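To the wet lab folks,

You asked to see what we're planning to order before we commit. Fair enough. Below is the target structure as tokens, and below that is the sequence we designed to fit it. If anything looks off to you, flag it before the synthesis order goes out.
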């Protein structure tokens, strides 16, 4: 198709072509993309808290006896407590668990908060983990290689 364009005294002749339309198929998703979720809904692995050595077990110095979030077990004789409340052995020996009667001080926060909720005549106990220092019997050390 030829078109005549006039600007003042000048005449321009232009050839116009019709644009070709290409049909392109566009595919749309039938489902939304599955985005990531930050809330795992309780499916996270456990922290593995609890006692690691049973009563009567022989432990070496530095062995972990119990891991805990709140103080459930208290350090007894030859037992240390780490910054995250982990109990560990300070000496080689045998593990013993003991329960001792606990009487909080009259004006402490425990006596105001805990004692008032207990029934009359109830006794509080604390569980202590102790290590009795002994030498290990029945194990052998390698002296030399043949």
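Sequence we intend to order:
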């Amino acid at each position: 198709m030829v078109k005549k364009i006039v600007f003042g005294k000048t005449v321009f002749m232009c050839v116009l072509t019709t644009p070709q339309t290409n049909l392109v198929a566009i595919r749309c998703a039938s489902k939304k993309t599955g985005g990531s979720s930050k809330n795992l809904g309780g499916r996270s692995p456990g922290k593995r808290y609890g006692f690691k050595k049973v009563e009567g077990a022989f432990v070496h110095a530095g062995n972990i006896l119990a891991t805990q979030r709140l103080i459930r077990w208290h350090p007894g004789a030859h037992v240390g407590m780490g910054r995250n409340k982990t109990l560990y052995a300070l000496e080689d020996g045998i593990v013993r668990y003991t329960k001792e009667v606990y009487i909080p001080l009259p004006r402490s926060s425990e006596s105001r908060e805990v004692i008032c909720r207990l029934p009359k005549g109830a006794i509080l106990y604390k569980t202590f983990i102790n290590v009795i220092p002994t030498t290990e019997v029945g194990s052998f050390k390698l002296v030399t290689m043949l």
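Structural context that might help your review: The two ends are 104 Å apart (CA to CA). The helical segments are 109-113.

Thanks,
Computational group
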